User: Which sequence fits this backbone?
């Protein structure tokens, strides 16, 4: 038996070069230092993405977009065996994915891992973050319950406020002037076909860059002489730790999904007033609150426009940070970049908490 | 695997080879067992989830009797299709005022068969199988056996079809 496996492995190896890859993986190292913990979060995000793809395909088996959307989700939740669990896992894993993507982004930022030669890693990561948020937004409508309906209605008001192209573009996404079954159909196509088709190649690019450049070490560690910098082999040591993290992530997700099954509200009804206390998902709360504050300071379209402008400007600056702080040196620029990061993090956290407090 | 090896070596520097083996076997069994538990905990709900509609259509096949309230108005020499459980079935009102009912699923490759009044036969368009219109017995063509026949009872203008 062992001989058979060995000869089979030899056959495959001589054609695919598995040994070469293994040799490469063994040569690759991951730095070890007091902030190594943050290296896991990209992998954890990837794990949740895989869970999303997997549970998403399972939901696709019973979900029907269009006029039947709510009824099909009701059947999945209440009639199909374990349908509630699959749906709950998809929702929980989506939230955990957004959370780990944010943690990954901020840890990369503060470790200054965006510096040369890793600029494209940062930019592709920003694209992945934006698509992840759009995945969340488009997927949220699909059950077509009350919350989904109003979240999409309100969310689409933001691009609608853009000058000139805002209205026609929003109408195109909405498939009409009001959110309805045609919107669900469109969002469904975006959520399961268009966005994965955009996401996957960028993800492959992002992961390839990590393979190419390896993990960045933190600046304080990079200053030390080479002999004092510690590292472990990627294979198998770091991979094992990575997989252990995946196992923890799976357990956390399974625990949440089964103990706190995702709710299905009442069917969306355009004639019913929005329920009191309605609010966006936590990852849109900050943007929601900033718009609200702007709206109360500057009444009317001015406030909304100003809010969107500030957010867009912040995002652009954030994305361009490798161009400002790209060199491996200490000094004013490096410090300013860190302060900018702390400011962004503080605004995000404070406006999110503020948003929940005034509900 | 490598990590395990180094771990056992450092921990068990003074243990003999037999001990080492059993410890490794123990670890293998433990990890294998936990892995199986996970595979089961993930696989079972997914299987039940995907199998849900099968269970439901199994339920519908448990039907043993179907009542057709309007069937008695069926003209002589005509046939109608109805659903018996999950499968299509056929009710024929013969010219001699007798009735037959059978499963309308060809025994060859499961196409739905049709009644041809002018030739008084049941015909399968897929591969040319022919059945007897009264009994459902295979007459010619590829069908290996006859159609599954049902009992027919006509009472007060209502036709009741039941399993034999």
Assistant:
């Amino acid at each position: 038996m062992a001989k058979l496996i060995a000869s089979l492995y030899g056959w495959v190896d001589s054609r695919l070069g598995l040994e070469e890859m293994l040799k490469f993986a063994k040569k690759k190292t991951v730095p070890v230092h007091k902030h190594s913990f943050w290296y896991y979060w990209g992998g954890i995000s990837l794990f949740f993405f895989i869970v999303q793809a997997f549970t998403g395909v399972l939901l696709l088996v019973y979900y029907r977009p269009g006029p039947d959307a709510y009824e099909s989700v009701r059947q999945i939740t209440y009639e199909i065996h374990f349908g509630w669990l699959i749906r709950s896992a998809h929702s929980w894993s989506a939230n955990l994915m957004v959370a780990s993507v944010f943690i990954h982004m901020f840890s990369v930022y503060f470790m200054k891992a965006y510096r040369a030669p890793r600029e494209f890693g940062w930019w592709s990561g920003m694209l992945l973050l934006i698509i992840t948020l759009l995945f969340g937004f488009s997927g949220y409508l699909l059950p077509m319950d009350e919350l989904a309906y109003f979240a999409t209605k309100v969310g689409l008001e933001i691009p609608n406020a853009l000058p000139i192209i805002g209205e026609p573009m929003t109408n195109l996404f909405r498939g009409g002037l009001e959110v309805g079954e045609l919107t669900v159909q469109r969002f469904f196509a975006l959520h399961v076909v268009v966005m994965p088709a955009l996401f996957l190649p960028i993800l492959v690019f992002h992961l390839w860059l990590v393979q190419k450049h390896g993990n960045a070490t933190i600046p304080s560690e990079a200053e030390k002489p080479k002999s004092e910098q510690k590292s472990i082999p990627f294979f198998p040591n770091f991979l094992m730790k990575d997989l252990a993290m995946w196992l923890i992530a799976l357990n956390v997700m399974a625990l949440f999904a089964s103990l706190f099954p995702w709710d299905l509200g009442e069917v969306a009804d355009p004639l019913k007033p929005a329920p009191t206390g309605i609010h966006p998902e936590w990852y849109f709360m900050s943007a929601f609150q900033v718009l609200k504050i702007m709206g109360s300071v500057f009444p009317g379209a001015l406030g909304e426009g100003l809010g969107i402008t500030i957010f867009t400007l912040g995002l652009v600056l954030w994305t361009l940070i490798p161009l400002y702080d790209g060199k491996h040196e200490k000094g004013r620029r490096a410090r300013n970049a860190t302060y900018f990061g702390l400011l962004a993090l503080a605004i995000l956290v404070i406006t999110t908490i503020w948003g929940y407090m005034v509900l | 695997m490598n990590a395990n090896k180094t771990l056992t070596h450092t921990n068990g520097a003074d243990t003999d080879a037999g001990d080492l083996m059993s410890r490794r076997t123990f670890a293998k069994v433990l990890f294998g067992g936990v892995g199986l538990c996970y595979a089961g905990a993930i696989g079972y709900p997914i299987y039940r989830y995907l199998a849900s509609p099968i269970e439901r259509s199994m339920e519908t096949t448990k039907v043993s009797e179907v009542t057709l309230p309007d069937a008695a108005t069926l003209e002589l020499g005509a046939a109608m299709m109805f659903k018996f459980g999950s499968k299509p079935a056929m009710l024929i009102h013969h010219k001699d005022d007798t009735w037959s009912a059978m499963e309308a699923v060809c025994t060859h490759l499961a196409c739905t068969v049709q009644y041809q009044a002018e030739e008084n036969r049941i015909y399968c368009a897929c591969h040319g199988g022919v059945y007897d219109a009264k009994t459902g017995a295979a007459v010619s063509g590829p069908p290996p056996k006859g159609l599954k026949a049902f009992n027919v009872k006509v009472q007060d203008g209502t036709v009741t079809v039941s399993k034999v």
Observations:
- The mean pLDDT of chain A is 93.
- Strands of chain A lie at 29-32, 230-233.
- The first strand of chain A starts at residue 29 and ends at 32.
- Chain A has 15 helices and two strands.
